[in-house]
Amino acid sequence: MATRERAFIGHSGVELLVVLVGFIGVVGLVAGIAYSINGLTHARAGVAVPVALHPGPGSPEHADLDAGQAPVAVERLPPGAQVTADAEDLTLTAWDSTLLEQLLGRADSLVLGLGVAAGAFLLVPLLRSVQRGRPFAPGNAARVGGLAVVVLVVGIGGPFLARIGSAVVLARLGLSGPGSVLTPAGLPSVLTVLLTAALLAALAEAFRRGEQLAEDVDGLV
Amino acid sequence: MTASADRDDQHRVVCHLDRLLEERGMTLAALAEAAGVTVVNLSVLKNDRARAVRFSTLTAICDALGCQPGDVLSVALRD
User: Fold this and answer.
1) Most CB atoms closer than 10 Å: which of A24, A47, A73, A136?
2) Candidate from B1, B5, B57 with C-beta closest to A221
């Protein structure tokens, strides 16, 4: 099949993407850090962490969870603590939080913000070299590989830190261990994250081969 | 730089476009016009900065100069 003559995205389209990605990167960085710092100022106030119900006696019936942001009745919940449910998740809110709990409770947002910034940092030079007509310029394969790592860290690392925060809060409230109806929320499905990272890793390998071919063509007359 | 690029830089192929053009009283621009190859590419070839030559380029140059590939390129003896 003949190679398509028309570019998929023009010079001005790439320029628009560069500006957009750069803006999103800066916003992600600032918002992620600001949200975490804001959390640190809320020490001793309420902290919200994701939890899950441990199946067993004393667990609320599943029907209770369909109430939509309604408080869920949970046994042995200390004063000042509350469990609310939305469509799919349970959130435990507890007062008298520590700095660590606040930091871990918002760690997924911090990791997401830093990940978005790192992604933008990697993507902008890649887009610039595409704009210059040299998509296989040296370093681009490493950038795409870096994007795969960012996806893994944001998709798995962030929720994992939030899960640790959840465990810390449950332990402070005496709700951890055997017999507790609450457990730290499980990690979200990592299948999408793994598939996206694998796709990016394959793309990085294609770029690496492209860089080699570009070097071969360099000096060809 | 990759191993293949290193190997490319170690070649001993010498281009004789200078002599061929001089013998025919042609300029590089005239050859570019006759062969349908850009002046930039011919300049790269003439100054021994090329790392590879397409058969189509070589054919066009030979047609324009009325010569054979061996007249355009040769391999220098080892030091």
Assistant:
1) A47
2) B57
Three-state SS string over chain B comes to CCHHHHHHHCCCEEECHHHHHHHHCCCHHHHHHHHCCCHHHHHHHHCCCCCECCHHHHHHHHHHHCCCHHHHEEECCCC
| Model pLDDT for residues A124-138, shown as the tens digit of each residue | 999 999 999 889 999
- Helix, strand or coil for residue A200? helix
Tell which of B8, B9, B49 to mutate to test the A interface (max A CBs under 10 Å): B8
- A113: its two tokens: 């913000």
From the list A212, A218, A221, which residue is nearest B41 (CB)?
Answer: A221
What lies within 8 Å, CB to CB, of A21 at 6+ separation is A119, A120, A123, A124, A127
